[in-house]
Each structure stands twice: as C-alpha cells, then as structure tokens.
Queue: 3 jobs
Job 1
Amino acid sequence: MNRVVITGLGVVAPNGVGLQEFTDAIQKGKSGITFHQELKEKGFSCCIGGIPKISEEKIAQYLTPLQLRGFNSTSILYGCISGVDAWKDAGFSVDENSILDYDAGIIFGTGTSGIEKFRESIYKIDDNKVRRLGSTSVVQTMASGISAYLGGILGVGNQITTNSSACTTGTEALLLGFERIKTGKAKRMLVGSSSDSSLYSWGGFDAMRVMTYKHNESPEKGSRPMSASASGFVPGSGAAALVLESLESALERKATIYAEVLGGNINSGGQRNGGSLTAPNAEAVQRCIKDALVDAKISADKIDAINGHLTATSKDALEIRNWTIALNRKGENFPLINSLKSQIGHCLAASGAIESVATVLQIKDQLVFPNINCDDIHPEISELIHKDKIPQKLIKKEINFLAKASFGFGDVNACVIFKKYLDN
Amino acid sequence: MTKEQLLEKLTAIVKPYVQNEEGFKNLNEETDFINDLEINSANLVDIILDVEDEFDIEIDNDSMENMLTVKATIQIIQNKMNA
C-alpha cells in the first residue's frame, strides 16, 4: 500500500482566487459574501451569496479563444483554473505538447457542470433551433465536463472521471483519488470539485427555505455556523483542486509536501434512523468519523483540530454532538473546530474541496483559521464543547492531525484524516 | 458578392478554429478544413452556423456533409445566395 501525500493546491473561492489570496483571506477571516441584485429581481428570499471574482484577463490565461467561444459554464471555468493552478503548484508544466502521463489521472466532482449552458440549450430547442446548439452544448453540460476539459489541458492518461454526491462531492473525490494511489492504480491524481455561480443552481434551496433570508442588508454577517442566530446557509460557488501523489513519486521529484492523507471513510446512513434525503442518520455520521480514524490508524485523542461541515442550519448542533460521540471527547477536551462556510458560504458540491484546501493550509502554516459570525455560540453547542474550542480569531498552534468531514443530501458522509508530513 | 470577397469572409470565419497556422497562411480554394487546417471535426458545425449568420442563409444537412474544403464551401454559399 502506498502512502499518499498532497503536493499541489489550487483554489477559486468567493473570498480569494489563487492560493496566496485565499490563504490571506482565511487567516484574516475575510467574508466573501455579497448582495446580488439578480437574486432580488428574481424574487429570491435569500439575496446574498458567495461568487469568486475573476477578470476576463485571468480567464484568458486558462482557456483559449476557441475554448471561450460559446462558453457559458462557471463550474468548468472554476474547475479549470483551480486544477491548472494545483498542477503547476505541484511543479508540473502545463504544455499542450507534453508527453502523455499514464500514471496521472483526474477525479473532479460537481453537482452539474453548466446549468446556464443547459438553460441556453433548452431555450434553443424549444424554439425549434436544435441545430443552433453547435458543438459546445454537450461538452459544457455533461457532468464530466470539468474533468474532460482538464484532462486535455493537462494531458493525463490515467482515469479521468467525475463524482457527484451532493455536498460531500469534494471530500469524496479526494478519498477516491487517495484510494487509487494507495492501491497502486495511479501515481498522481488531481482531485477536486466545482460548483457554478447560478441562481438556477441556488433556486431550489431557496424554495426549500434552507437559505437565510435575514441578512440581505448585512451580507457579511449572513453565514453564521454554530451561532445562536444562525438562520440557514448562504449559497456559495467556486472550486478547488489538490494534487495527490504517492510518497515515492513525490520524493523522487523532490516535490514540496503540504501534508499526508492518512486515511478516511465514505458511507451512507441509508435514510434510516432519522436519516432522509435531506437529513443525516446521526449513527452513520458517527460511524463514518470512527471508521476514518480506524482507516488512518490513529486514536481520537490525537486529533488537533476539526474542519466541520457546519452549514449554519439547525443541524449544526447535531453535527457537534456527532463529533463528541465519535471522538469520545467533549467540553475542554474537544479539539479546535472551525467552519469555512462562515467566510464563504456553502459552496455545495465545491465545499468539500475548497474546505479541504483550507484544512491542508492549516497544517502547512501550523495554525487554525478563525470562525466569523459566531460570537453568540448556540447554547446547544456550548453545552457540548467549551467555547474556546470555537476560535473567533486565528490561533497559532502545532497541528499534526486534522479531521475534515462533509455531509450531503442523500444521507451521504465522508471524513478524511490529514497529517503533517514527517519523513519517517 | 465576388468570390474574392466571399473568400475573405470565409477566412475570417474559420480563423478561430484553425490549429495549423501554416496551413492557414497558405489558405486557398483547395484547402481542406480537417487535413490542412487541423480543425477539430466537432467545430465544423460551428463554422457552418457562423457561415449561416454571416451570409444569412440556411445550410441543409446534405450540403453540410460536403463543406469540407474551401472550394466546396464557397460553391455551397454561392448556390444558397443565388437560390
């Protein structure tokens, strides 16, 4: 079994595009949530959201004029930017004449690759103009559009695929890539996930009343995981990518190693015991975390910090309870915990990847980034864990073991354990 | 519209899809879109849509199949415009 390490990171987030900008943002606790007139005009209850800011010049650095003809998919755009950045960050070149690398593959998840492009196509078909779709409709609307674009840009020849498991997607992609390298089927895997900036993606959540409508006048205060005044999640969008590599390959290349992926687990609550299409089976969540520790071969008391799923809905307290049971740690003995969603909202299919990058950066920089908007910790949470375990500002600390979990509609769970890389 | 004017317009239309610049520099009536310009075959339908927009014509499926060279394309455009 191969050890698996992380050698490259790329991120497109609402509060920072590119690794440096994102690192600065998460350490400062910078909110990427803004008001969007378009949502208000369409009658959304929640008119705030997180959308990465990307200039036309920046886009032109990643996609050719030909690729940009008839291009209408932010999910593919974000995926390509983060994927190319991660690949270069790992020390690989991006060159259209590069030699095909059969030992490198891609698992890049998404909810839907281009809902805006899909809408455009549907309108044309309804207008009896199916032939006007041209060649761009299929590749931009297939779920595997992002991995397909990236596969060609990077020139990689191992498995190129897309996974989709709602808000677990990004963390699942990471673990699928991890397994592939661990079992020797690939040496390098670019893993990540992407979610588009579109009111058509967000509308259904607005209709379910799971997004907050109380902060349209104060967008930066809107995303409030673990807070007593949390009133629903704030939608976000973006992408992130990580280059996973066998330790052997990384050492051979003398690559910079950000962290080691020690293990993890993916499971489902089967929509039983309180679980449903939209709610988690608590027992399965606890089991997922415990099994991740077993897979990583470490005990729960080793965990220095947790990056939670914690969306700012009524389920936050249940999630904290699940962590306390799974780790058998509570009160002052609980690890530090944070939620990146307080800064960037819930980036849905992209959340697991963006949050994993943030988690890995905590190991790299040996710190825990702050939660914002939870100075009023929910009483059900403060009954379970000491308030100091929910940092309100950056904490410098030795971080050796970190747990990151994501949970999604369909009652699906994923938990990954990262470790500071030590060469022994 | 003269053949020269037509060729000029067609050259501008295919330019963004070209992957062989050398072939594009030598573009003439005998030029084959796929063999000489290395245009991705999927993009041929985009060129046809652009041609339709530029010349305000509609190209039927049978004609589309023949639009593989500059010569054939000019011929089809002329026929449609004179129809």
Note: Residues 368 and 400 of chain A are 12 Å apart (CA to CA).
Job 2
Amino acid sequence: MRVSFPFSAIVGQDEMKRALLIAAVDARIGGVMVFGDRGTGKSTAVRALAALLPPIAAADAGYQDGTVRKGKVPVPFVDLPLGATEDRVVGALDLERALGAGVKAFEPGLLARANGGFLYIDEVNLLEDHIVDLLLDVAASGENVVEREGLSVRHPARFVLVGSGNPEEGELRPQLLDRFGLSVEVRTPQDLAQRVEILKRCDAFERDPAGFAEMWGRAERATVRRIARGRAALAGVVMPDAVLGFASRLCIAVGADGLRGELTLMRAARALAALDGIAVVSAAQISAVAPLALRHRLRRAVLDETGSTARIERALEELAA
Amino acid sequence: MSAVGEERLADALLAARLCAVDPGLGGMILRGGGEARDLVLAELRTGLPGWASVKRMPVHIDDERLLGGIDLAATLARGAAVSRAGLLAEADGGAVIVPMAERLSDAMAGRLAAAIDGDARFVTVALDDGIEAEERSPAALMERLAFWIDLSHDRHSGHGPGAEVPQAAAPEESWTPDQIRDDGEVVTALVAIAVALGIDTARAPLFALRAARAAARLDGRAAIAEQDILLAARLVLAPRATRLPTAEEAPAEPPPPPPQDYAGEQEQGSPAALEDVVLAATLAALPKDVLARIAAGTARDRRATTAHGAGERRKSGARGRPMGARAGLPGGGRRLALIDTLRAAAPWQKLRGAAGRVAIRRDDLRIRRFETRAEAVTIFAVDASGSSALARLAEAKGAVELLLAEAYVKRAQVALIAFRGTTAELLLPPTRSLVRARRALAELPGGGGTPLAAGLRAAQQLAEAARARGRTPFLVVLTDGRANIAADGRAVRAAAVADAMAAAKAIGAGGVQAAFLDISARPGPEGAALATAMRARYLPLPRADAATMHAAVRAVQPR
C-alpha cells in the first residue's frame, strides 16, 4: 500500500482538520461535507486521517457475513467513484458464481467494504441523486439492507461519510446537505509564504514518501493519541443545561432548520471538548463548532448572497453581548 | 503554417518528451490539431521505454474492461470464471490515449482521475476535439494533467519534428526525479506566478516544478536552470491562468525570505528578479483566447449529471422506471435481468443436455431496461436593449431569478442569453450552479438597440445544442418585440423586423418549446406575431412585476 501524506503536514486548512478529527472521535456526528476548489487538499486530508487511525478489530471492519473474524485490520478507506452503479454500491448477486456454479451468492458492494471506516465521495454534488439518497439512508441507519434479484441480505455498514464538492459546478439539494453532520469550506490560501510551504512539502513527499512520513511520525503519533484520548473521554464529558440553552438560543437566532442542527451542534461540541481534554463543555466549544454544524442548515433564499458563516458569527456576537 | 502554430507544436512535442521522462506529470490535453497530434503521440512513444504499451481508451468502454473484472462471454463459454485485467492496468508504465475527451462523461473522468491518483503510473493523453469554449475535457481530468496544449488553429500535415526542437535524450532506466537538486528560489518563483495568475490549485505549481526538473534532465543538466523554469511556467502555468496580474502585484510583491538551506547560493540573481523574468515570459505565452476563457468561467457544463428535471422520457439501461427486459450482455451499467434470463434459457434445457445445473448460453442473457427523464434546460433570452426600459429589465431580472431558483429545485439547468446593441451574448452556458447564474445576472448590462434576430438565433442554436446532448430545451424569450437591428448588425428597422420574423419561424419549425413574454408597456401586434411564428405561448405582461412574470412562465412550462 502506498504511504499517505501525513495528516499533520497539511498546511493550514485548520477548520477541515478540526471537523475530520471531531468525526473521528464521534462517528455519530453524521459525516463531513467539504466545499472547495480542486487542489486544496481535501482528499489528501481525508486519506491521511484514515491512514492515521490505529487498526481496528477485523470483526468491526469490512463485510460481515456472520463468520467470526479475529485480529486487526487497517481502518477501511473506500473511494466511491462518480458514476458508480447501484450494484457496486449496495452489492448484488455474484454473477460469476451464479453463472459458473449456479450458486446464489451475495457480492458485497462498496458500503460493505467501508464498514468501520471512511466512505469518501469526491464531487458528491455530481453524484446521481438516487445513489446519494441510498448512501444517506445507510449512513443514518448503520445497516445496509439488500432486497433484490432474489437476494435478501442485511449487513452492518457503519462509516463516516465524507463528501467533497465545488458549489460552482452544481449544488447539493438542501435536504441532502442537511444529512451531513458538519460542513467545511476550504479555500486556497492566498498567502505566498504558505503556498510555498505547501509546494515544498508536497514535493518533499513525492520525492521520498517514506522519509517524509518518518519526519512527521512524531506529530502523527501525537494526533493518534489525541484521538484515542478523545474517544475514551467522550462518554464522560458533561454538558451543562446552561450550555444546552445557549446552543438552542443560537439555533433559533440563526434560523437553523430542524432538530438535527441542534443535535449535531451538541455532539460536535462534546467531541471537541473530549479532543481538547476538557471535562465540561462551555460556550467556547459551542462557538467553535457552530459554523461547522450549522452553516449548511440555515434557511435562506436560494439567491441570497450573504454568507452563512457571517450570519452565524453575528448571532454568536449578539448572544455573547 | 503560422509561426505560432509551429511554436505550439514544438511545445506539444516537448511536453510529450517531458511526460515520457517523468510520468508523474500525468499527461496532457491536446485540443484540436488533427494530424499534428499523431506527431505528438509518436514523440511520446519514442520517449517511453520499449516495453511500455500505449492503449487507446474507447469512449464507451465499460467498467470491466477499464478496471478489470470477469469476462462474461468467456466465462459462459468455458463454464468457469475467466477474469481479465483492465485497460488501465495494461497501460501501466505506458500511456493511455483518450479520444474525444470533451465528450468523456464525468463518471469516466472520475475513474481515470482515481487511477491517476492511485498506484498506476501511466501518461494520459486526452484528445479534445471541442470547438466551443464550453466544450472542454472534464475538470477532474484536466486538473490532473500537467500540460494543456491547444493545437486547434493548426492544419498540420506531413511535417516531422521541427529542427528547432532538440532531439530527446533517451531517458536512462535508473533515473528518478530526485537526482536533480532544486532550489528554494524556484519553488518561490513558481508559487508567486501561480498566485499572480490566479491559479488556486496546489497541483499546478507542483506540476511546474516537476516539469522544470524533467526539462533540466532532458538537457542533461543536474540543476534547474532559468530556461527550465521559463519552460515550465509557459507550458504548465500559463494555460491555467484565470486572471492577469494587476500592475502593483506583479513586480512589486516582496519575495518571502529565501529558505535557509539555499541562503548561501544566490548566483542566479535575487528571487524577485527571477520571478519577474519568468512572469513576463509567461504572460507573453498566454494563449490569445485566455481572456475569453476567463470570461466564460472555467466550470465545464455538466452533461452527464442526473436527470431529475421535467424533461422528455428516454430509455436507459441503468436507472429510472423499469421497462422490462431485452436481450443483451450486462456490463457498463446495464444490469442482468435474472428471471428473464432463466426464462429464456428454460425451454432449451433438455436439448442442451443440462444435468443438475441450468445451462445458460450467451444468447439467453437479458438485461433490464429503465426509463428516465431527460434533463431540462431552460434558456432565457433576455432583451436588454434601451427600448425595454430599464425598470422592465430589473423586473425581468427578478423573474429570471425566481425561475432560476425553481429550476434549481427541480434540478434543471438554466442558461442565459442577453441581446442588446448589435449582438447577442451567451452570458451563462447551461449550468446548475446558482453561484454562476447569480453572477451572470448581476453583470447583465442594459441599453442600446434591439437585435432581436440575433437573440433568437443564439437562443435557437443553444436549444439545438442542448437537444443534441439529449436534454430537453425550453425557451423563454423576454422582449418588447420591437426589433430595430437586423441580423447583419445594420440599424434598418424593416430588415430587422423581417430577420426577427425569420428567426422566430426557424424556432417554430425546429419544434423547441417556448414562451414569449412581451414586456413592452403597451403590447403591440409585433410580439403576438413573433410568438405565433415561434409557436410559443404568448404572454403579454405590460405591468407585471417579477412575481407575476414568474407565475406566468411557470404556468406554461412543460411539466
């Protein structure tokens, strides 16, 4: 397997990194949607994170057909290609065995392979709507139910859904957007020094992937420990009623649709506190994750020019005052 | 043949050699060029090692063939699973030629992009036969190929590699890009040029750096020299420019401190000087159409996206409402209809001497058919002339905005044509992006004559183009119907009216669904006559505001 670009070596893009770390700590957040141009390191970051995570028990990863598996395997990372057919995504009748041996067998799809890990969809806004519907349904239920071609199979499919796309090339339906837990906007840094640094690191990595990964090994191990500690601490993090009230007031103030926003805001704040080793969630964590959790859920006229992030920040300021 | 053409061909040949030296450059987009492309491909072939294979990827290749999978026909014939490697795997170490790249579906481009990002190492040469600015290779593919070379103005025939092109040194087997030391300065200069030209992607300067190294290597030098940087900037960065550097930003930007490891070596002059030299050379190399391209926006229209608008029905093998089955091989998105296949095989079982298991032959295979709806494109042709008074234009814009918002909800595409002065202009090629639509509307200027004929013709062309791609066009014309500029640009009223009528009749004959919104303050007979000629619904809206217009169009829109 090819060495991944180290997560810690990604220059800037702090918001994206934070969102991914939060999703790594609490998979129930419901995935991350990354908006941004090509070549801004979206897929690099997601792949890097998957490669970073410690191996998981084989019984929790990939397709589970009921047989007992032992040992550990790397965290699955599945790339869902644009234009993938429904068969490839949910799985289908194993044609080879059906025709060759006359056996009715199930050939697991990408959802099964992604179980326990990450499912990454580049250009999710260009994906066929019926595939997106299907993905979101499975992502929400954690189980893939196949009822087709005489097959009746159900298997666990718990994964962190990460989508990326460029709104200039077609937008995502609001109801689908709402299903993503967090959303991030990435931009190319316009600062020359930062971009020079990006080019240098990419170049160093391309020339000697193993050596470059070695150089960043220390920072990578620190991130692994941070995620592990965060996961362990998550259940114990306290969410005071006053902070819950603050979160609700914020959602009302910005006009976020539905309960899902509030729920995600709360979970993300808790995960962030766990990551940072904080025992009691305060308004600071809520404020830090509010743009991530709410910016894609604001009710707005489709042609409204005001940025959602600006509206959330304004509401935060007003609430703090 | 022009000197510019010679130069472009020389660039293309050089790019081919650079790709052969370092396949990490991804490859190139060759736009147009006819036979000149064969020269480039031949050059690439010579540069690659002898064992490398060059594969041509047909447009309608299926997944099994592209990525590898079971060979269904062979499997059936033999009664045991036969698998074969995909085309991309076979091309490893060699090259993949993608003909008609501008027609490549986003899905195919996505698979290619994933293969390029993955472990496979091959040079991709995308042959782009696009003519219009919006007919381009998929962005996901372009992003991953270092060189974009436009040969489209050359009609080249029987010309060997030019004498001015140095012959390629055969790359040594052992060579990897590491051996050439680069210089902190080079990195800074390339990034600075990328920033100045408004290139956002981080891949571009990385490609430029690789290209410079490969160029140095090709010349047998160990270090990158100035000419390598010039070459890389011209070949990699210039075609990607999205804006021209502003005066104060280009030369005066203070260079960041040089990195420590190279602080001592400054023989090649200060970084600022290097940047300036390279930037000046890059600007000189900017393709002539770059400004047009910048104006048109870089996003490619999306022809392979979902069909969820209100379009005509069409048959599809992959999705939609089931329509029954027909004989055919599954693959390429077509799914096996198992029951129908068995039903087809059943009567023959005894004859075939089946014992124990069902004997299925290739001819028994049935695939499913589905019905989908074609994507709808709503084309707005908006009269922005002086006679459609300014207030009316604002209302028209408001109505278009509302319709846009609705088209967005229905997942239909929208396009916007404005006509004023002497010409019609395509402000917004068919898109689903609200961001772009909003921008195009905001930039819509007003005033001047009414070249109605030109506007209608542009609208019809766009509608025909949309239909040719399997979409269903719906035309909405907003005008006061008072044509005063003829098709040839003369301000002769009688000719203008006649031309407009002819254009309207052409639309009527073409059978494009249309609505004609008469926005003049006192709707006259001209509008009604034009609408009749167009076979369009005529909607006189003398005092309508944006919301009324919107409601009117909605009522006549096909569902």
Note: The longest strand of chain B covers residues 423-431.
Job 3
Amino acid sequence: MEPGEIHALLGENGAGKSTLMNVLYGLYQPDEGEILVDGAPLKLRGPSDAIAAGIGMVHQHFMLVPVFTVTENIMLGAEQVRGGIAGFLDRRRARREVAEVSERYNLRVDPDAVIEDLPVGIQQRVEIVKALTRDVDLLILDEPTAVLTPQETEELLTVMRSLKAAGKSIVFITHKLGEVKAIADRITVIRRGKTVGTASPQASRDELAALMVGRSVRLTVEKEPAAPGKPVLEVSGLVVDDDRQIRAVDGIDLTVRAGEVLGVAGVQGNGQTELIEAIMGLRPTLAGTVTLDGQPVHGWSTKKVLRAGVGYVPEDRSVDGLVKEFSVAENLVLDIYDRPPFGKGLALKPDAIARSAKERIEQFDVRTSSADAPVGTLSGGNQQKVIVARELSRPLKLLIAAQPTRGVDVGSIEFIHSQVIRERDAGTAVMVVSSELDEVIGLADRIAVMYRGRIIGIVGPDTPREEIGLLMAGITPDAAPAAATGTTPADGGAAAPAAESPGNEDEA
Amino acid sequence: MSTMAVEDVAVAGVDQGFWTRTRKVGAVLLALGLLATVLFGALATGEQARFTLSEDSAGAALEIHGTVGAIGFGLLAVAAGVAMLAGLPKRWFTLVLGVGLVGFVLSFLCWQVSDAPAGQNFMPLVNILRGTFVLALPLIFGALAGVLCERSGVVNVAIEGQLLMGAFSGALFGSLTGNIWVGLVAAAVGGAFISLLLAVFSIRYLVDQVVMGIVLNLLAVGVTGFLYERLMQTNAQKYNSAPRFSNWEIPLLSDIPLLGPALFRGNIFLYLGLLLVLVIHIALFRTRWGLRTRSVGEHPTAADTLGVKVLGLRYRNVLLAGVVAGIGGASYTLALYSFTKNMIGGKGFIALAALIFGRWSPTGALLAALFFGFADQLATYLGAINSVIPNQFLAMLPYLATILAVAGLVGRVRAPAADGKPYIKG
C-alpha cells in the first residue's frame, strides 16, 4: 500500500478477502507470515494494536451499538475521561471531536442521534468518522456498498476520493466490478485465499471477472422474452408489521403472472422480507388479501401454502432454508418427507430418500462429498443449490426466491439464474426479491421497486439503472419517463404509487 | 453529501387506531377507579381512617372519613383513567399513571383501615415505610447484582445462590472470629465465589447461563444446608452467633418526621444499599467503565473491534455482582437473624423480577424493589388487622405485576441485546 492510494481487493465471496483484512485488523491471528508497516514487521495481538498502528476498519456488518448515540459509539474504546480513577466521561470534548472530524472531511452526522434511528448510509458514515477520530492512515472498507442505494454509493465514492486527497490510504473490498473500476488505483484479485493477479482499473470487466472465478463467465442472464399467462399470485392491499410491531408492508398490490419473472428491487429493510413472509404464511397479515390462482391463501399455514404449489427460497439459507446439521439428502426432502415415496405413516423410507437425493445432486450439480454429509459442511453456493433443488423438484405454480444468490460464487449464480429462467419458461409464475440491482435487472421481466413498505413504481427491465436507483431512494420521477418500456407502462408521476398499481399491472 | 433524499420523504402515517397504549392503560385505570369508588366506597365504614406519623396510634395523624376517603380517592383514579382515554400527551403518561394507581391504593386503604376492628382504625406509616425498606433491602442488593451482570451480557439467575452464600459465610466467619467486619468481608467473598463459578462456566466454557444459574442456586442451598446441619445446629454458639450491626442514627436527618425514624435510624446495610444504587447508576451512565460495560452487553463484537477486552470486563462485572449480592445476604445474618437453612427463600428470584420490572437500571430496580417490599409489608399489616382480604392475595401482587411488566404493559421492556449470549471471538 502506498500513502494516498485506493487499493481494491476483489474476489468472490469466500475467497478470503474479509479473513485477510481481519488479520490485518488484529481480530484473527495469522498462522504464518508477517505484516510489514513502513518496512518494519508488525505483530498485532488485537484490534487495539492495529488502531495504534494507524489501521482502521469499517466492517461489512457495522460495529455500532444500536442503542448508543453517535458520540458514545465513537468514543467507545478511546474515551476521554476526567476525575482520575473514577473515569467520568468527557462527553463535551468527545462531541466536539466528532463535530470537528465530520466538518473536516465533510461527513455530516448528528453527534446526539441514536444509531438505531439512522439509515444505513448514515451509520456507515458514523463508522468512517469513528475510524478517522482514531487518526488512522489506512482505512479498510469491507464490502461497504452492499447495503447502500446507488446514490448512497456515489456519495461514498466521493468521500473516498476526499479521504485519498487528505493522504489516507484505503483498502476497498468488494466483488462489484463497476465500483472498482470507478475508484481504484490498483486492483488485487484474490481467489481461494491466494493472490491470483493484480490489474489496473483500465482492465475490462470481463477480464476482472475471469480473474475472480478463474474462467470466463457470462455477466448477463440469457433468456427469451417472457410469455405471461393468467395471473397466479395476486396481492392486494396487504399490510404487515415487522417483529417490532412497526408497519413494514403498508398496503401493497401486485400481480405475478404465469410464465413471467417479477423482480422486487429495493434497499434491504424496506419491507421485502415481511412481504414474502406474509405471502408464505410465516407472518400474520393485518389487512388485505393474497390469492393463488384466484383462491385466497392469506391466513393459511405455511405447510398448506407450500402444498398448494408454492416454492420458496428463503432469504437467509442458514436460518430458514436448511437444517445445517442434517445431511444433504435429508435437507432435500424437508418439505415432502411425509409424503410417498419418502414417507408412509410414521416411517421414513431411507432408500427412496437416498435415491432421489442422488438424482438431484447430479441434476443440480451440487458439489458434496456424499449425500450423507451434513449440509453445513458445503460451500454457500452448494448449500443454495440444495435449496433450489428441493424447491424446484415439486410441480410449482409460483416460485418465490428471496436473495437467491446472496453469498454465492459466480459459477453457482449463473446456474441458479438459469434454473429460475427454466422454471419461468415452464410456465411458473416467479417472484425474485433481491437487493442486488443487477440480479433483478438480469432476471426480471418487470421490476417492482419497494420503498418503505410500498411499491413505489413498477418498471421494465431496460429502465436505466439510475432511474431505478432513484426509485430505491424513494424518489419518483415527476414526468412519466419515455425510457420505461417493456411489459408495463411506467408508474410515472405517481405521488402515491401503491394505490394505483393494480390497474397498471392488469394492462400488462 | 448534503441532501439525503431518504430522509426528506415523509413517512406514511403509521395508523395505530384508537386504542393506543395510553388509551388501553387508561381504560384499565378507569375500571380500577370505578371498582374502588363503588366497591371500596360501599364497604368502607363511617369510622375515621387514621394514618399516623409514628409507630403506633399516638402522635400526629392524617385523618379522613372512611367512606369519603374511599370514594374520593377512587374518583381520583377514575379521573386519571378518563384523562388517559381523552388522549393525554405522552410526557404526562407516567405521572398520571402514578396518580391513578396511588389513588386506587389509598381508596383501598381507606376502606381497610376504617373497616378494621374497633381501636385499630389506624395505620402507622413509620412502621409501614420502615418495613417496606427492610423487606426491599435484599431485593435491592440482589437486583443490583443483576444489573452489574446483565448489563455486561451475562444472565444472572444465580442471585439467590449469591445471597444465600453471602448470608452463610457472613454468619460463619463472623461467628468464628467474633469480628463483624471479617464477617462482612467473608460474605462478599462468599457471594463472589458463586459468581466465580458462574463466570468461569458461562464465559470460559460457554455453558448455558440460565442453566448454570439454576445449578448454582441448588449448589448453594445444598452446601449451606449441609454445613448448617453439621456445624451450626450442633454448635450454634460457636458457628452461628455472629455479631450484628446496630442501628446508626444519622444526626439531623433522623429528626425529619416520618422519613427520619423510618429511613435514618437503620443499619449499615440500608445506607450501603441506597448508596450503591446511586453509585452504580452514575457509574453505569457516566463513566468509562459504564460505557464499556453497556457496549459489551449490547454488541460485544463492536466493543472488541475497538479494543475493549470483552471477556475480562465480563469476568470483572460478574465477580463484582457476587460481592454486592454477598453483602446483601449478610444484611440478614449480620443484622437481623441467625442463619437458617435456605433462609433467602426465593428473594433472589424476586430480585430478578425487580431487575426486569426496573428495566435493567439501578434506579428502576430500586423502585421495583420498594414496590415489592411495600406489597409484602401491606400483606403483613392486613393480617394484623384481620382484613377480609386474604394476605396471600397481596403476597401474589408482586409476581402479577412482574408478569404484566414483562408482557409490555408498563412500556417496552428491553433487555441488553447480548444478555445471555456467550462471546466467541471470530
């Protein structure tokens, strides 16, 4: 690393980027090798050593105490105190310091705001201010854009440039090629824990992607135009609360037709999770209706919804999708273990389960040592393939896939995407929810953008990214944009978009 | 970076409907008030209800006609309920709720006192107040031990065991040496010993903290019970006759009417308990130690990345909790009674309830402990005047209140986020 340099660390999920940086920040101890700072080897026994050596880190999952104020979070660990051994906090001085740093680097934060009330973009700013108040020379940003809207990402890139101008070095970890090309001075690509090459930002996207996965990949999803049939899933006026009894879905209307993919885009935490869980019967609906093939299904148990022909790829595979301690074969029949041929009465039929597992492992290219291996020992991509295999092995009317490729390597992404499109072409209605805009644009025939519990607009997949980005930030265009083509007229000029969307959808 | 579009867009009005929390509580209060006005008013007699500012029927007193008082205070509760139903601003909520509940209690007391057998139509407030504090004292120490532990993320179900071990070792070593201060230190060490086991097993070996707490309680009952039978019962003179702290009168303050005799003629434990509430409250919210403790209880990984030693801090706080609870146990054996088997009798669990009822804050825990103490004391008083209300009914009240509190009726109760979760690095 040179002073005043932005060095991008590029690699797939699980390539070892974050582990490397955690070693650099003293959280993990290296088994071998050493770290050199200004030519001298550095031994880090913990994060405090790293901070003392001028290394700061903004973690992928923010390291902020949600119930503390901005100032409290920033002062933690480096408190200014008065009163000797009693150690009374000098809040006034800490606040002044926060104000000073945020002024100097143009990072506006309210020192007295409580973290949990702040949007993620601001929380990230707090993280950066926290590092800067500790006088770091090297700032590590671990996947900083994963949770941001495109606009917030732009702002972050601006901040990074100004930090660079102030002589700070930045390590920027990501797997998003566009951002790397936009900002990095130097790029190091990591694969399976090894440096596989360095590149300049002038390298093309395809070259970088090839370095990342070790072979060339297609970055777009190949598909034929959709042939939408009759409506399969119809949601109208749906209202759902989240776990804290705060309104998460606030009157949503949407329709998914047979043979089309409806993509739901939006920054995480705008009600997507609750919407899906309500449809699946995992969360009570407070108002509105959900119908499947014209039959009301709200209030049904999840089992009944699944049996009615709904496939569900949950958002968080390790929590909701799989039983990690169970074998691959067992996980493959979690939904139909009690049905013939896998079970009869109280008994399971291990032979039938094993046979079907073998077939599906082959069909869905699941890389596992055996069908009896605990699913938790598989890589993220292969775990996800197990879920997809399970859900697609039943005859479906509707497939709901939430974050289907989160934390999955590029090869598996490609495969999962092709499976989703294959299902669509077989006449299933598909709803894909993803916070990766590229994924939504690639898969969807129509894109619904969610913002604060409402559908703020429904646009075609060839709508410019910037426009979708604005929708994701809650900004609706004033005039109906001509750019929005595709199967739906744009929901332009809609001040209260959710109210009129069913009408729009029926025109499709 | 100046404009944040996200913030500018107005949030769609979250429509809670008519039945907000304030209105629900108001409706309950209104019902209680009506009950008090009608029922207590009808049952109260025409006798004067006297609330004396002394320990007996003598001296200055507040007097009120029984029926008038029962109805009047009942109406006060009704008024508070109506105010809440009418849509009271949020910041008045606690105050009006307090007024309403006090009205209900006073209405009840007017009935009870006026209905007491002839010659007993009085309530000695000094006794009641002092009794409240005496009964609340172990709860205060116990709940503070809970605060210290749980704010740093270790669930402390072992309060009962810590109190018991403190009481036992205080009695034992106080008796053996004949020195009361040695007894006090031994009590602190005894409580800390239970804490040490809790800390080692839950922090180092990641044993489930609740299970560990329960096991430690049983261990404390077993060990102290065994030693009590073997040593103390056979030779009480040698092993179970610890010296006791006498009451210390605080000059000037002890002359305040009502409060003076009730609060400022107590023993060292009363003063120490109240002082600790203050000290721990300030320390928790105003010092570096407190900030770090709270951060470790809420988000230990964040604290770790900033160089806070998570495990060390937890060890320290759990041990400190043991010291506090141990001294709380000594408030029995070094001031009031000699040691008997299982003498804490569940107070540790009530302290846990007080901790939750007081929302994990030292002052909240103090108020909760006093409330529980008051209910306890009232039960005793009602038994003495042969009340028609079975005193078991009142003894039930603290638990009922805790259930309601945990169910969220008294406001959102939120434990420290990492409470009970072991911290594993990496």
Note: Residues 21-115 of chain B form one domain.
